[in-house]
What we know:
The structure holds two protein chains of two kinds. Helices cover 25% and strands 34% of the residues of chain A.
Amino acid sequence: xxxxxxxxxxxxxxxxxxxxxxxxxxxxxxxxxxxxxxxxxxxxxxxxxxxxxxxxxxxxxxxxxxxxxxxxxxxxxxxxxxxxxxxxxxxxxxxxxxxxxxxxxxxxxxxxxxxxxxxxxxxxxxxxxxxxxxxxxxxxxxxxxxxxxxxxxxxxxxxxxxxxxxxxxxxxxxxxxxxxxxxxxxxxxxxxxxxxxxxxxxxxxxxxxxxxxxxxxxxxxxxxxxxxxxxxxxxxxxxxxxxxxxxxxxxxxxxxxxxxxxxxxxxxxxxxxxxxxxxxxxxxxxxxxxxxxxxxxxxxxxxxxxxxxxxxxxxxxxxxxxxxxxxxxxxxxxxxxxxxxxxxxxxxxxxxxxxxxxxxxxxxxxxxxxxxxxxxxxxxxxxxxxxxxxxxxxxxxxxxxxxxxxxxxxxxxxxxxxxxxxxxxxxxxxxxxxxxxxxxxxxxxxxxxxxxxxxxxxxxxxxxxxxxxxxxxxxxxxxxxxxxxxx
Amino acid sequence: xxxxxxxxxxxxxxxxxxxxxxxxxxxxxxxxxxxxxxxxxxxxxxxxxxxxxxxxxxxxxxxxxxxxxxxxxxxxxxxxxxxxxxxxxxxxxxxxxxxxxxxxxxxxxxxxxxxxxxxxxxxxxxxxxxxxxxxxxxxxxxxxxxxxxxxxxxxxxxxxxxxxxxxxxxxxxxxxxxxxxxxxxxxxxxxxxxxxxxxxxxxxxxxxxxxxxxxxxxxxxxxxxxxxxxxxxxxxxxxxxxxxxxxxxxxxxx
Lengths: 487, 254
Ligand SMILES: Nc1ncnc2c1ncn2[C@@H]1O[C@H](COP(=O)(O)OP(=O)(O)OP(=O)(O)O)[C@@H](O)[C@H]1O
Ligand SMILES: [Mg+2]
């Protein structure tokens, strides 16, 4: 009967669905200026000089480099990749230009066009109100929009290079306070060679009226991208920050090792949202970005709050654990994550919630979706220190499997040193139910749309944490990633 | 409208339907009764296109077309609706979102305009009222946390939204309290017209007091063992299925 036929048709359809092409895979033809291949103290001096950095920065980088040289690449994550030859990559690439652009008119039109193509128009007139953008291509900040409006409120939002020139004291005060230079192998590497990134400072009592956003793009070949983001919300301040990323399709793997540090003072709140869509490699697992990122937030003051929301659909390998240290009393940390893997993608991601202050609360909602032959792991640590009276944690880790060749793994770790702590952990693993698909089919919805609907429903708790436009974006991205993934 | 000829269906190695013949014309209501496990849901699911079941032989025509060749969603587009015996929950997907997609896909397949948000919402409210469901259901996730009775009513609500040509109600009356039963029956009676048809799978003659069938069939051991009018249901209520069993056994020994 057509039954077997139908089954295999469905299988094929599902496979086709998850086999959609990566649509940001183009390369911008632009002249770049690079540091010589390889990594040495000279490379670091070259980068620092190129950027006209203050001396303290160079020294800081060199210390990080010396530390890194003694460190070993971590191998505990549930990911598998060939050894990386750190001497075979470029550590600095910048679109060639004389001086930094003073305003948008001075930005190379080709760069503007690139971002336009990515759906990120940098032209302020054209932008819908509400989001200020810092665009970073190959390590260099290309343009930041809405600077003037923000400045009137005392908000600083600029590239890290500019911050180092214009606000060196602020950078010096905070850089490395949450993620120290030698924190881990990739953070040390980043500390040594980071080339740019975004910097934001929200002064006391100011609620940032628009979303701040950085858009990262890797363009040059054989180049690692090492950006560094530092966000400080002073007492009673509030900011919501968005980060997006894409890269061209290339056969070789590219390394992305970013560091993000967040600092929330008393009564301050930082919401950090990421939609990560680096090139994941092709169907055979060739190429793609190695995304090894250290993200950490410090709730420094009482009643402060930091929330990470991430939607991860890209990268060949993801190694990423956005964390919150709740040092202030009554502070709160949150982590909401959707991680989708397909084909040969590998993701080992999760969070660390470190309870130090009293009455600190944390919440973890992790939604993993695996399709194809991918592997998706959640790794989460909840740590409650001796002094953290009445700490609360709620964790929910769900895995959804699409097809039978993929894997989902959950590694929860608990370190509780205070008896008053209340920890709740829920975990589920499910397959998309044939019953659910059939129910939707029976109502006239085809399998492809049925799966998209079910997956969106599954991710809803996370999507609702994203700012509106970003949530729509994330939903679309997930639908595209799902195309051809079900079998 | 529906012509089932000698339909034989198996799951794995077990034959469950062993030659079903049934004709349903526009405007008709057919009731299918029969003991547990006799194959009623199997028949309903095969008609809706459930894949686990293997059609061994026979044919099914729906409005002149080969139903068995169609994908489940195509059957829905052609106007076939199944109210499930056990409706599934779809967490995180709101009724509004789900139905909007369903209604619009069906309309698109029929070459009709998709509904805009306002007229869609109005239609939802109108049909909810038909089954006396609260408007708050619009924003709840599909069947999630619905009580047994609410799930059944929700099936009838969806049926009203999709306005099918042929609706198969698989034990929609089971688990309903008396008032809900009347509401559901009322809903069906309002929707029925001379162009559509219903197949009611039920264990209880009670439902048939409210929705009067033109035909009653008894499915027994994978076959329609007996057909009649509404009095057959009354007879079954009184005497159970034993006499059919005996008749069949007697036939087999002859
Ligand atoms: N997926 C399945 N796997 C194995 N057997 C099945 C499956 N589905 C149905 N059956 C068997 O087929 C037979 C008919 O089942 P069906 O659900 O059609 O009965 P029914 O007439 O609807 O019963 P009820 O009145 O209890 O709802 C039963 O013996 C049942 O166990
Ligand atoms: Mg049944």
